[in-house]
Amino acid sequence: MSQVPAATRTLRVLRYLAAQPEPVPLDRLARAVGLPRSTAYHLVDAMVAEGFVTHLADEHRYGLGVAAFEVGSGYARQEPLQRLARRPLAALVDATGHSAHLALLHGRDVLYVLEERAPGRPPLVTDVGVRLPAHLTASGRAILAALPANQLRALYPDKDAFVLRHGVGPASPSALRALLVETRQRGHAAEDGEITPGFASVAAAVLDHNGHPTAGVAVTYPSGPSGPSAPSDPAPDPAEVELIAGHTRRTAHLLTTRLGGGSPTGSARPTPRR
To answer: Are 156 and 52 found together in one domain?
Structure first.
């Protein structure tokens, strides 16, 4: 038991350093993690010896070391989020009868990393490895709605940051902000025909332990005839769409729980409809 507090302090130091834009002085680190300066010194000294912290002697600052990078790289190689999401996404498909997918934010795009296709449903543009503009997709909007306001402004500083696929969707920072306010009020994101005419999607964000959106879970379904490639299946009625959205929100919440996640830190917490 005596090792548990030390391990907790070590992890707090790593988490704090990982969140900083640059190396920090020892005094600031000690205050941030709630340690006496002498204790913090001995702790980071041991972490320097193990390669998890780097001491920049000329600057009297501490930053992450190579061993911390190796841990992060190992996390990426093992794809834990995709592994955690595979069964919940399959259950989401079973519950809704429609295809589901998981997407990550990469710059102003979303990258689709997992897809579970419902039996008999047509292939979608949201295949694994595909990138699409985040502000046009339901999964992207779910993620953007949970981002801190300053990060959203950095991603979309002006009208030049926006592209359209079919002439619909937000085309300015103010239009995007208004759409994301609606998304948070609704409790989930939505799009209809902005990616593929005749198809609509709903999505919810998966949050990490800092309340930061790490992924979006989405379900895509037919929304009515629109052009030669439109689906032949009937579009679900509003009550069915709300049921689909509810299943999607619960799946995102399940993944958030499994990641040890919590409420968004950068924006108002979504209030799901009942």
So the answer is: no
Distances 171 to 50, 136, 163, 199, 267 between C-alpha atoms, Å: 49, 10, 7, 20, 21
Q: Are residues 91 and 65 in the same domain?
A: no
- Give domain status of residue 97, yes or no: yes
Domain that holds residue 29: 3-73
pTM: 0.70
What is the strand order of the sheet 189-192 is part of?
A: 131-133, 109-116, 99-106, 213-222, 199-207, 189-192
Query: Buried b vs exposed e over 128-141: b needs ≥16 C-beta within 10 Å?
Result: eebebbbbbbbbbb
- Give yes or no: residues 43 and 110 share one domain: no
167-205: pLDDT as tens digits: 788 999 999 999 999 999 999 999 999 999 889 999 999
